[in-house]
Specification:
Elements: H1 3-26, E1 30-35, E2 41-45, H2 47-52, H3 57-64, H4 74-90, E3 94-101, E4 107-119, E5 122-131, H5 133-154, H6 160-179, H7 186-212
Antiparallel strand pairs: 1-2, 1-5, 3-4, 4-5
Amino acid sequence: MSDIETAKTTEQMCLDEQDLRRLLNMSECAMFVAKPGSQIELMYANERFYSLMQCTREEFSEIYHGSVMEMILPEDRQKIRNLIARQTAVGGKIQLEHRARRKDGAVIWVSVSAHPADMKGQRVYFASCLDITQSRRNLLEAYEAKRDAELISNSIPGGVIKLRILSCCMQMMDFIDWLDIPRKNIRLILETIVTVCCILQMRKWSKDRSRLL
């Protein structure tokens, strides 16, 4: 290949990389390109990615040593490596949910979707990530509300009341989301619902018992 052809090829690759960066920067979500390996070395990320981690590009290199794996909590890293290895063996995209520590020390939950691809003859991951901390928190609150309802219903005779309370709680979750009620009030709301259901059912049992006597 002549020097002119080499220069044109190099120029084309640079333009491709510039177009790629421009494309990533236009994305509405956090995105990055990384090299496969035990540390998942970061090659490029858009500003939304650094915003997700509450740091600048320079701070990411300093704090996480340019490694995506360093973001993940130490106790979770081997599990994530195993998941990546299993999904890579099957082929297709990689889907992960893991905990990450931001620059300010806060722990967040991150959902990552990565697609393997070739860039300039090198195997890379094109990945998007999303902060799912709030949705995980909502899920935990719903689980705890369900558990509390089960504890209350288990202290009351009969299985029908248990099913009614749990069904009522789960239906109210969607209604509460629609009303945009602060999540911190959800437990109080569900506890109130459970209490009212229990009182109404107990009254019904009392009336039925009175008729039989």
